[in-house]
Amino acid sequence: MNINSSTKKALQSPASDHGRNIFFTVTTDLSYDQRMIRICTSLAQAGYDVTLVGRKMKNSIRLNEQPFKQKRINCLFEKGKLFYAAYNIHLFFFLLFKNMDCIVSIDLDTILPCYFISRIKKIKRVYDAHELFCEMKEIATRPPIYKMWKKIEIFAVPKFPFGYTVNQPIAAEFEKMYGVNYEVIRNIALLRPLIQLPKTEKFILYQGAVNEGRSFETLIPAMQEVDSKLIICGDGNFMQQAKQLVKENNLQHKIIFKGKVPPDELRAITCQAYIGITLFDDKGLSNYYSLANRFFDYLHAGIPQLCVDYPVYKEINNQQAIAVLVNDISAKNIAAQLNNLLHNAVLYNELQQNCIKAREILNWQQEEKKLVEFYKKLLAK
Predict the structure, then answer these.
(1) Lesser CB count within 10 Å: N end or C end of the chain?
(2) What is the pLDDT, as a whole number, of residue 284?
(3) What CATH code is carried by the domain that includes residue 144?
């Protein structure tokens, strides 16, 4: 595409004299992305003009009003290589004629258009890495897919000197691989008044992406030996396999799939749950170094959880025991640990009280201070 000099000058001009116009780009459906709602709300409340750009899907619900701008891009495809290619092209041309002072790529799947837009407009660019993208199981175990994304990562990440991620081990990996020194800003839930509802039914809750590597292969069979229901709130690339596992194990009466649930409704369900689930296999380094959103969502609802004994979870749990940590994610052990939590009132009450104490320290109101300071320093340069 040819851009004449006057148009190019307009594209490169900042939106304001203060560098306060920030665009965030994701491939998620904005209605359900609690992490980005938190981040964008905090920066909007700090005085920035924030726009969050995501995707519109066939089953997308109406967007809620937010203190920041929202834009959803229609795309003919909803998954696979064609989706990523089409979405990135649409995203690039959408961003091309928008005024901004800073552009932020959330994970690797929007990094290329963000990089090229930042070069054209001569603006700051930021990489917000929620995970080690190439080391997710669904990518790491597929050599052709891994090779494609790794090429993008090797090309782009070193060109993003400014960024942040969710924990120190992931930050250390980025420094080791690409020489970038990223901040750590954890994705912790917002502190709200705790509504402790009577536990009329001791159900177990999994919330989040129903993706490969989340241990559904052992969690679902484990429910044969657990005297409780499992409610799964979320969707993802392992949904069909998960439903098939339920059928194969004749657990239709005990495992309920609710699909994607809006944030307010999800918080209400979480508060009513008895136990939360945060399980991953260790087939990808991203899982091993993960710090899942749901880990803090359960904590803030005041419910104990069954969680993998991986480094970041162990570090937090060592400060205050809020979860039962497991190395063995076999169906037999998962069932045993869930039954212990269901029937051991002393252990359960101790973990529950620790959750209530920990939420006063581990909350977004504390973590957002680092986020606001990051952008204040970046845009003052």
Answers:
(1) N
(2) 77
(3) 3.40.50.2000
CB count within 10 Å of CB 223 equals 22
Task: Examine the domain organization and report whether 56 and 183 are in the same domain.
Answer: yes
Tokens of 276: 């939360």
Q: How far apart are CA 117 and CA 68, in angstroms?
A: 21
Say yes or no to pLDDT of 332 above 80.
yes
pLDDT confidence band for 4 (50 / 70 / 90): very low
Range of the domain at 25: 5-188+363-380
CA angle 127, 129, 135 (to 5 degrees): 130
Position 156 pLDDT exceeds 70 = yes
Give CA–CA dist 206/278, Å, rounded.
7
The total number of structural domains in the chain stands at: 2
**What distance, in Å, lies between the first and last C-alpha atoms of the chain?**
31
- pTM beyond 0.70, yes or no: yes
Please tell me the number of Cα atoms within 13 Å of 81 on its side-chain side. Answer: 5
